[in-house]
Amino acid sequence: xxxxxxxxxxxxxxxxxxxxxxxxxxxxxxxxxxxxxxxxxxxxxxxxxxxxxxxxxxxxxxxxxxxxxxxxxxxxxxxxxxxxxxxxxxxxxxxxxxxxxxxxxxxxxxxxxxxxxxxxxxxxxxxxxxxxxxxxxxxxxxxxxxxxxxx
Length: 151
Fold this sequence. Notes:
single chain; 7 helices; four-stranded mixed sheet; rod-shaped; alpha+beta
């Protein structure tokens, strides 16, 4: 009565037939629809391929950094100042660009950190301007890269 071998066996308690039937049903479904399944898998793979390529080609390039050299050659300005007024030099403690005596009646060129501006005699800032360069004509000032003062 308590023996495992008398009344029951391991196969009686496990019903494997429905599982096999389901497995064979799936296999028969795959065989019957093999072409449609292959086509659907192909569409999915192509869609994934093009999606990946789209992501790859849509990447923006890194920002390019350009370093621009200044447009004015400061050595020429320094040389011109020293040739115009040789007593003003750094050894003597003079102020660079203090050439107001030589620039009276001429066009005064003023160089700031952001722009180069020339002032005409009679202009609003002409008397206050301490020039870095002097010009005889407006065309000389413009060819040196200076713009006309707005006032």
